[in-house]
Amino acid sequence: MSSLRSFQRSSNLARNAVKSVRTYATAEPTLKQRLDELIPEKAEEVKQFKKEYGKTVIGEVLLEQAYGGMRGIKGLVWEGSVLDPIEGIRFRGRTIPDIQKELPKAPGGSEPLPEALFWLLLTGEVPTDAQTKAFSEELAARSELPKHVEDLIDRSPAHLHPMAQFSIAVTALESESEFAKAYAKGVNKKDYWKYTYEDSISLLAKLPVIAAKIYRNVFKDGKLPTKVDGKLDYGANLANLLGFENPEFLELMRLYLTIHSDHEGGNVSAHTTHLVGSALSSPMLSLAAGLNGLAGPLHGRANQEVLEWLFKMREELQGNYSKENIEKYLWETLNAGRVVPGYGHAVLRKTDPRYTAQREFALKHMPDYELFKLVSNIYEVAPGVLTKQGKTKNPWPNVDSHSGVLLQYYGLTEESFYTVLFGVARAFGVLPQLILDRGVGMPIERPKSFSTEKYIELVKNIKANN
């Protein structure tokens, strides 16, 4: 009886968390209602698929892959997106141009709403305008931070990197985890996803306030200029909380959050979130772990490094952005043993579609901006230089080579904050997978590791038997 009462109490807590948004419901199914229909079907599909084809060999592993960061090894399940070397990223089978066309938009806007992408990544379905609006309102209704999290952010010293503050605040939200509370009381495994869902939605809802408080504390007057508005979408609320009201910047936030959300499951932030989540850590702890990975210079911090490199180039070239001068500067960079930041990708073998989306945004809104002209001219020169050098498999630009330029144009010039924005966006990609992992009962992740000595022994045995 005690376990039954505990389950009922946990269920009541979950219901209470969303009771304030009941008035926003439409005649169409809400996201959770739709997921309640899809999860059993998906779990059965996965179960039967594993049963029938579980012994199928799906690839081989080379020794150089084990020593090369496991690159290219097929070993993860990630439903939301797949990255093709030639086609680029596809979100549930849809390209970036597809989602720009198909996903609901803000009134008068032209960029997709990130909350609509969250729905798509979680269900595989494009939500209606009414469903998206109701979901936007639900996220706004859940956005208030606990007092202790507000105090924790406000007590953080200004010299503590914004990304470290972001991770700390997300970790501190563990106090609100419905999953952690339900698990401690012995909830049925089949219901894990429901509490993971509640945590994920509440966490997603609070990220703009956390990010904005950090930004205002470190770089501005320490005060939020406004509150979350239930009538606005997620990107608009994030922009306004940061202190930006320019309608173009609101559109940029919608585009930025959408295209930075998901890039399949093998990147550090996605994989780390998935890995920690596989131990049944709460969404708060799982996302915080992923954010710590995103903070690294080989991952999310890369756009900041691109911008720093562009500033140095701009200073040296003094406005003369001819192809000859740019080519000379690129060769000087390479000959000094450095890389050209923002170019190359672990998987892609073409221009990153996320770069292209941002370039098209810039052509529309800031065609005469000096930094954009510089980036455009580099785009015309760098692939040829990198191809001639011959040390990269992909001489084309990635997402990092453009995003900082757009933010600079609208006045968000504090580069150390850029990774926090990336972290808010990445939550839209990793949290849906965490919910699905719990829904289909994915096990704890635990690959096999060997020492170098053991690999030597293994290779010798293989060579001897061939």
UniProtKB/TrEMBL annotation:
Q: Name one Pfam family in it.
A: Citrate_synt
Could you tell me which InterPro entries the record lists for this protein? Citrate_synth-like_lrg_a-sub, Citrate_synth-like_sm_a-sub, Citrate_synthase, Citrate_synthase_AS, Citrate_synthase_euk, Citrate_synthase_sf
Q: Which UniProt keywords apply?
A: Transferase
Cite a single GO MF annotation: acyltransferase activity, acyl groups converted into alkyl on transfer
| Superkingdom, natural source | Eukaryota
Q: Name one GO cellular component term.
A: mitochondrial matrix
**What Gene3D superfamilies does the annotation carry?**
Citrate Synthase, domain 1, Cytochrome P450-Terp, domain 2
Q: Where is the active site?
A: 299, 345, 400
One GO biological-process annotation of the entry reads: tricarboxylic acid cycle
Look up keyword Cytoplasm and say if it applies.
no
Similarity-based family: Belongs to the citrate synthase family.
This chain belongs to the protein called Citrate synthase
Instruction: Supply the source organism's classification.
Output: Eukaryota, Fungi, Dikarya, Ascomycota, Saccharomycotina
